[in-house]
Design a protein that fits this description.
The chain has 4 helices and 12 strands; from the N terminus they run H-H-H-E-E-E-E-E-E-E-E-E-E-E-E-H. By secondary structure, it is of the alpha+beta class. The strands form 2 sheets. The chain has a 6-stranded antiparallel β-barrel. Strands 6-7-8-11-10-9 form a 6-stranded antiparallel beta barrel. It is elongated and about 135 Å long.
């Protein structure tokens, strides 16, 4: 304690000078806005620099974590890319819902038109493989359409992208029926017309085959509702349907054998002729 007093006593003039200098600086800053702004700016500059360095140091510490997150995301995206299925490969018959695999004939697409109003598909497999006209054609994603003509080794199919095509279809969740057509405008969309206004529908609802024909079993996938229109002439809904299938990229297809088809057709013909 005595040493402290001795230090103050010996340096009293210097300490008094520093005290008076500090007081004068405070009074000058408080009484002059220019000096006050300069001091504040200097303080902001110093504090900003300090914060910037602190933030940079924090970012450096978090860099490893960010790198790990980016690496995991990169790995996930690569996994998705490498796991994309090749449409030219034959999918498992177990993936075809609603159809017994013993009633399917596997065939490869060798030609596919999709840029005209009446599109056709040519497949490898014909009469020798048991394929006949008017048989339904599907793949693992949904409906393709029906066999048109056959030769011994090849067959042609009327594509769903054909303005002459018309298929019985329904809204899966409500069972309201309509006729599926193609307006010739877009290869990714078809139209379900004549849907009753009583149907409770919304965008995203699934459209499937109706089962009211001998060609396709019920509930074969077609697509989902993209847009809903009201036909002012008929007061029915017209639904724009986004196809599950990419009709511009077809690999293998399945032809549906219906053992009851000929019996049903013969019975209906007899009924009409009576």
């Amino acid at each position: 304690m005595q040493q402290i007093f001795n230090f103050i006593f010996k340096n009293s003039h210097r300490l008094l000078f520093l005290l008076l200098l500090l007081i004068s600086l405070v009074l000058t800053i408080q009484s002059h806005s220019f000096h006050r702004s300069k001091v504040i700016s200097s303080a902001n500059f110093l504090s900003g620099g300090v914060y910037e360095r602190i933030n940079g140091f924090s970012e450096y510490l978090n860099l490893q974590t960010q790198n790990e997150i980016l690496a995991n995301e990169n790995a996930r995206l690569k996994s998705q890319l490498f796991n994309i299925k090749d449409s030219t490969l034959v999918p498992s018959l177990d993936s075809i819902k609603g159809v017994d695999k013993v009633n399917l004939i596997v065939s490869k697409v060798i030609h596919n038109s999709y840029n005209v109003y009446e599109n056709y598909i040519t497949i490898k497999g014909g009469e020798k493989a048991g394929i006949k006209p008017d048989m339904g054609v599907i793949n693992s994603l949904g409906i393709i359409r029906i066999v048109d003509k056959t030769s011994e080794k090849y067959s042609t199919i009327v594509s769903i992208l054909n303005k002459k095509s018309q298929i019985n279809a329904k809204i899966k969740k409500t069972n309201h029926f309509g006729s599926l057509i193609w307006d010739g405008k877009n290869t990714g969309f078809v139209q379900l017309i004549d849907v009753p206004r009583l149907a409770a529908i919304r965008k995203g609802d699934t459209i499937v085959t109706g089962g009211q024909s001998v060609i396709f079993p019920e509930n074969i996938n077609i697509g989902t509702i993209d847009k809903i229109y009201i036909d002012n002439q008929t007061n029915y809904y017209t639904l724009n349907v986004k196809l599950f299938n990419d009709m511009t990229n077809l690999g293998h297809v399945y032809i549906i054998k219906s053992k009851d088809r000929e019996e049903i057709i013969n019975l209906e013909n007899k009924t009409k002729n009576e």
